[in-house]
């Protein structure tokens, strides 16, 4: 295993991806097999944004390894953070990231951070500015709990789920489809799913309405198809996700309900399993009939978040 990786923020290599998937599946069989590995160590889980799965699964993963997790909901319980270096702090922000991250770094052995994009400051978002400030100033290994542009623990859980489900020798046909939504949603899950799926050597088709092209840093090698019905034909896995426009940054260009996945949409994909990271807007992004039917893998994905986090924390404890 690559012993030099200090942080877990992105897809690194197929080799490491396979190692983490293998380790996660071992933890799934026996979650407490390394229950002393993190004894005496603490992980600080810092949330600048809401969460259900990431918050709980990361804590459970740490507890399975004997670590003590402490959660700080910075958006609700912490001081308002100033992220910009050199700022004259005479407005709403109370504490500079330089000070806060250094303090947190001194309290914990590992840090895990969630920092969503602004969806208004494109240049800052695409360079993962807020997340990068934690990396710069904490001095400790950091796990991404979702940054402006990536959600690697979700993507690892998704790869674990596909590995568990797909037993055939051939490569699966994987489709990432845009879905309607009423709010402007970040690109992180879609970016990361593309990055990991392509990086792990799968073929990926991405389908979306015109104007919803993702950042090409994440989609190189994917087939882009604006005809959803064509893209879905014979799919093995259909990953459903909304994202706002990247080119017309952060804007909602379409809410076309015909993009919501139904059994009818999958009439030419009889074996397709359907994935979504949750939370999902039922009957907007995805129909009840899909979510409550045999195709849905959403609960398996959510459960695998524990073992994805456990494999990553365990890996960083070895580094
Ligand atoms: N999928 C996911 O990250 O869920 P939460 O936002 O609830 O953590």
From TrEMBL:
Residues 14-164 form the Aspartate/ornithine carbamoyltransferase carbamoyl-P binding domain. It holds the Pfam family OTCace. One of its GO terms (molecular function) is amino acid binding. Keywords: Amino-acid biosynthesis, Arginine biosynthesis, Transferase. Carbamoyl phosphate binds at residues 51-54, 79, 114, 151-154, 277-278, 305. Pathway: Amino-acid biosynthesis; L-arginine biosynthesis. Belongs to the aspartate/ornithine carbamoyltransferase superfamily. SOTCase family. This is N-succinylornithine carbamoyltransferase. It comes from Algoriphagus faecimaris. The lineage of its organism: Bacteria, Pseudomonadati, Bacteroidota, Cytophagia, Cytophagales.
